[in-house]
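Issue: copy button drops trailing tokens. Both records pasted manually instead:
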Amino acid sequence: MPSDYRPILDKIKAGDWDAAHRSIQDFSDPLACRIHAFLHRQEGDLDNAAYWYARAKMTPPADNLSEELDRLYQLAQK
């Protein structure tokens, strides 16, 4: 696992969904799965998002996309 996923999150924030998705596919730890889930949630593919949230051992969050992205940044800094 890289020390943080901020470069991938920066791609998401910049609107480069494809680059972020390509980058996150190389990782399978819980935070990577959560980021992958977020990408599919952002895309509107909620079934795929649910799969990746389950791999992260969590249910889909109730917060909006902006709040979730902020939370992902916080988690990536730990």
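Record 2 (pasted manually too):
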Amino acid sequence: MIFKAVREGQPYPEHGLSLKDWAEIPPRPVRLDQLITTKRELGLDRLLADDSTFYGDLFPHVVRYQDALYLEDGVHRALRAALQQRTTIHARVLEL
């Protein structure tokens, strides 16, 4: 399995971070098999797009809550990394 779990929705409280706030969190390596997704579905067009990060952050957004890592944004980048045989990604991790 690529991810630790796949779920729909966020089990953690709303954090209210803006894209600018996320940009201030330095990226760090995170193992794909430790991530729990917060989206069950992924658009194939987003996965295969060459410019998928053109308008967004280069790094996925992960929320650490109750000792679990939830992949809030960037599931397409994480899946692309897995398809390239990588076991880790660099992500911005918010500690709640």
